[in-house]
């Protein structure tokens, strides 16, 4: 998906009202780790849709925040900032589902990877150098 588009996150196949912890992580271009986690409870049908299920207290955020696992990413190194320097390569987002809540994650139940791209297919990147001006022009297909 594109970095500025909403991401729908859902988990299926859980037990009715099963408690789980979801964790996201990514590494920036320098290799620094950013992570966020949230506690959830699946519905009666064993499904967890972040657009409908609020995060419970105790994680990086709480409440109904469908994109919370992305905006709440925090660096492991203090005062580090998530900055994208090369927009031609995507961020690789790791998604993990663990059993239960608590300080230490329980058993890993599921995991997935997702690419968050910055350029739509077909976009041309044109460097601009005119006098003292240095810029990049992005042209749609």
Automatic annotation (TrEMBL):
Swiss-Prot/TrEMBL GO biological process terms: acyl-CoA metabolic process; fatty acid metabolic process
Any Pfam family: Bile_Hydr_Trans
Highest taxon of source: Eukaryota
Residues of the Acyl-CoA thioester hydrolase/bile acid-CoA amino acid N-acetyltransferase domain: 4-130
Coiled-coil regions listed in the entry: none
Record-given protein name: ACOT5 thioesterase
Family matches, as PANTHER family: ACYL-COENZYME A THIOESTERASE 6, ACYL-COENZYME A THIOESTERASE-RELATED
GO MF, one annotated term: fatty acyl-CoA hydrolase activity
